[in-house]
Write a structure and sequence with these properties.
The complex is a heterodimer of chains A (about 120) and B (about 110). Chain A is mainly beta and about 120 residues long. Chain B is an all-beta fold. Helix content of chain B is about 0%, strand content about 45%. Chain B is built from no helices and 9 strands. In chain B, strands 1, 3, 4, 7, 8 and 9 form a 6-stranded mixed β-sheet that branches. In chain B, strands 2-6-5 form a 3-stranded antiparallel β-sheet, with no helix packed on it. The mean pLDDT of chain B is about 95. The chains are: A mainly beta (about 120), B mainly beta (about 110). At the A-B interface, strand 5 and strand 9 of A face strand 3, strand 7 and strand 8 of B.
């Protein structure tokens, strides 16, 4: 069974750093892209970026380029999304999802990030 | 960058057919995918590559794509279909994945 399991909810202060994770199992982790999707409270889905764990090839949405870093450790089948300096506007639910081609077939359960002073 | 436009809301009576559109420049040349998201849950893929259904998705869900509009059609709508629906494409010119703004389906 394919599963993407994300790390737990986080509460951070503005200016702090954060790295959240997404662990894949039940499939060949290095053969599928892993994307990250933001959903702000009451809003729609926004594609942030995507990584191919096999060779760490990475793409970013222009809206998120330079704001976050996507990485992966194929030895432990885990992808990451990280911030160096959080803002209140980063408060959102973040989903990872696997992409065999152009669509996202399996999704993680989501990680809620709350940034508040 | 490529833009996908969806109506904010669609309403339908139980047992009727709901159609949710997704507009984009020459979207018919792209593969369109659709997701269902219920409150408090992660999105679920319901249609991929314009009209294919993942295993476990009812045949009531179907898709089409031509010209500048893709359509998700839900036949014999049930109360449990009430959710937000998002279209999505991969834009080859920018190598970016793009989501539409989402449509809230209300079952009357």
């Amino acid at each position: 069974e394919v599963q993407l399991v994300q790390s737990g909810a986080e509460v951070k202060k503005p200016g702090e750093s954060l790295k959240i994770s997404c662990k894949g199992s039940g499939y060949s982790f290095t053969s599928y892209w892993i994307g990250w999707v933001r959903q702000m409270p009451g809003k729609g889905l926004e594609w942030m970026g995507i990584i191919y764990p096999g060779d760490s090839d990475t793409r970013y949405s222009p809206s998120f380029q330079g704001q976050v870093t996507i990485s992966a450790d194929k030895s432990i089948s885990t992808a990451y999304l990280q911030w160096s300096s959080l803002k209140a506007s980063d408060t959102a639910m973040y989903y990872c999802a696997s992409s065999p081609t152009g669509h996202f077939d399996y999704w993680g359960q989501g990680t809620l990030v709350t940034v508040s002073s | 960058s490529y833009v996908l436009t969806q109506p904010p809301s669609v309403s339908v009576a139980p047992g009727k057919t709901a159609r949710i559109t997704c507009g984009g420049n020459n979207i018919g040349s792209k593969s369109v995918h659709w997701y269902q998201q219920k409150p408090g849950q992660a999105p679920v893929l319901v249609v991929y590559d314009d009209s294919d259904r993942p295993s476990g998705i009812p045949e009531r869900f179907s898709g089409s794509n031509s010209g500048n509009t893709a359509t998700l059609t839900i036949s014999r709508v049930e109360a449990g279909d009430e959710a937000d629906y998002y279209c999505q494409v991969w834009d080859s010119s920018s190598d970016h994945w793009v989501f539409g703004g989402g449509t809230k389906l209300t079952v009357l």
